[in-house]
Amino acid sequence: MSLKHVQRTYEWYGNADPLYAVLSDKGKKGHRWDVGEFFEAGRQEIGRALTYLDRLGVDLKRGAALDFGCGVGRLTQALCEHFDEAVGVDISSSMIRHARSYNRFGDRCSYHLNTTADLALFDDASFDFIYTNIVLQHIPAAASAKYIAEFFRVLRPGGIAMFQIPSGRRHKPGSLGEKLSQVARGPLRRLWKRVRGKPTVEMHQIHRSRVEEIIAESGGRLIDVRQFGSVRITRVSYMYCAVRE
Ligand SMILES: C[S@@+](CC[C@H](N)C(=O)[O-])C[C@H]1O[C@@H](n2cnc3c(N)ncnc32)[C@H](O)[C@@H]1O
User: Fold this and answer.
1) 18: Cβ below 6 Å to ligand 1?
2) Edge-to-edge strands of the sheet including 127-132?
3) Pairwise CA distance, residues 21 & 13, whole Å
4) For residue 161, what is the enclosing H or E element?
5) Which of 20, 60, 65, 123 gives the lowest tally of CB atoms within 10 Å of its CB?
6) Cβ within 8 Å of residue 101, ≥6 positions away
7) Residue 78 in contact with ligand 1 by CB distance below 6 A
8) Would you say the CB of residue 69 lies under 6 angstroms from ligand 1?
9) Is the pLDDT of residue 129 over 90?
């Protein structure tokens, strides 16, 4: 699957049901999210991330923050409450359109469309903090590896990246559970979505050991890793916290 597919998928969902496409909570499908409740979830998530960094003793500068894969700005808006400036970047123009319409922070918040496999739209050393959740899991692994490397280019020295990505499936390789899950989540799911005229949201992963290598190769130093994320029933997913050396 290509980045083009990811773009088309989120263009479609950004038009069809954007808040549910971002946070697919039970009972919220079909425009059932209360907007206030939705953005409150983002505020709480960023609050927990900052408390976690505090507990780790991380010295986080509060200048500019980047929300990679910002969707409708659920986390970007929350970052504005803690940083001088927050920037959201997304591959989907429909998501960016909604994000701009929900912006409560004027010029301190900006949203950018980026459909390329890098972050060339940002200069080196532009950000103090990068946060991304439920994004890299939908991007083909080779492209995610490139984005992770880019995080450390656009971070200032001493800047912090927190990013979530699954490491692998919970099933033992070759087990019946793995085979069944591959069919259910792969061709069968794609066919079912196609029948209903919906694009498939792909799931991808990079093994933890490889992610740690990418961080080191890109000028980062791992501070902490913890299990994190809504896909933990079927996959092991981690939140990585690393500093730009
Ligand atoms: C499940 S939503 C999560 C949005 C946001 N991170 C949040 O938690 O509220 C995934 C978002 O990632 C975006 N996305 C997917 N691939 C991307 C890429 N290569 N670059 C930027 N954004 C991307 C999608 O368009 C979508 O808005």
Assistant:
1) no
2) 109-113, 85-90, 64-68, 127-132, 155-169, 235-244, 220-227
3) 6
4) strand 155-169
5) 123
6) none
7) no
8) yes
9) yes
CB-based contact 200:12 (threshold 8 Å): no
Instruction: Give the CATH number of the domain where residue 197 resides.
Output: 3.40.50.150
* Per-position DSSP letters for 79-115, written without gaps between them: HHTTSSEEEEEES-HHHHHHHHHH--SGGGEEEEE--
Whether 218 shows a pLDDT value over 60: the answer reads: yes
* SS3 state at 172: coil
For residue 23, report the phi and psi dihedrals to the nearest 5 degrees: -125, 100
Q: How far apart are CA 225 and CA 147, in angstroms?
A: 18
Domain count, the chain: 1
Structure-token pair, residue 101: 């319409």
Gap from CA of 242 to ligand 1 centroid (Å)? 21
Give me the residues paired with residue 68 across strands: 89
Mutate to test the pocket of ligand 1, among 17, 25, 91 (most ligand atoms within 8 A of CB): 91
**What digits encode the pLDDT tens for the residues 12-57?**
999 999 999 999 999 999 999 999 999 999 999 999 999 999 999 9
Domain residues for the domain of 151 are: 3-244
Token reading at 43: 């505020």
